[in-house]
Amino acid sequence: MHTMKIPNERIAVLIGKNGEMKEYLEEKLKLKISVDSEGEVIIEGESVDEFFGKDIIKAIGRGFEPSVALKLLDDNYLLRIVDLRDYVGRDGLARVKGRIIGEKGRTREIIEQDAECFLSIYGHTVGVISTLETMDIALSAIFKLIEGLNHSSVYAYLEKNRRLLKANRVKDQ
User: Fold this and answer.
1) Which residues are bridge partners to 125 per DSSP?
2) Fewest C-beta in 10 Å: which of 33, 81, 115, 121?
């Protein structure tokens, strides 16, 4: 059994319309999921299934859409959550989130495209769902932005790594 808490505004997303998402997760992962009105989630099942269920529920709780969170069912995908409070004070939180999102969401879009990942900037966290192959690239780009590196340098870093990934994939074929 595992207990975790998700934000109240994410409860409806986890449960889904008419309970469909919760039922789907229970059936797919062979789990029993209980959610109360305070956002406390209890997961019961086999330890391996619980492990996957915990990450999927955590991802939904941190702002990912269920369709993206379900990618974690694939062993190749990982979830990482960066708590921005560990790196900036409360008054710097909005600025750093703004740097990661970028004007009209452009920086976030570039990170997702070049690092082949999914980002969720929610509350005081940045969530990343990615393969092991590209997770370090996405996290490095995020940390470079947190540290204040200019956007053009981060974009150059991402572009370079995208080219390397592509070259390595061609070479491996």
Assistant:
1) 83, 122
2) 81
> What type of residue sits at position 15?
I
pLDDT tens for each residue of 125-158 = 999 999 999 999 999 999 999 999 999 999 999 9
**Comparing C-alpha atoms, which of 125, 151, 129 is closest to residue 138?**
129
85 & 52 share domain: no
* Tokens found for residue 53: 């269920």
Q: Are residues 63 and 82 in the same domain?
A: no
Q: How many angstroms separate the CA atoms of 77 and 154, rounded?
A: 23
Give how many domains the chain has, as a whole number.
2
Residue numbers of the domain that contains 120: 77-172
Q: With b meaning 16 or more CB within 10 Å and e meaning fewer, what string describes 154-163? A: bbebbeebbe
Contacts of 140 (CB under 8 A, 6+ apart): 157
Joined together, the tokens standing for residue 2 give 């595992």
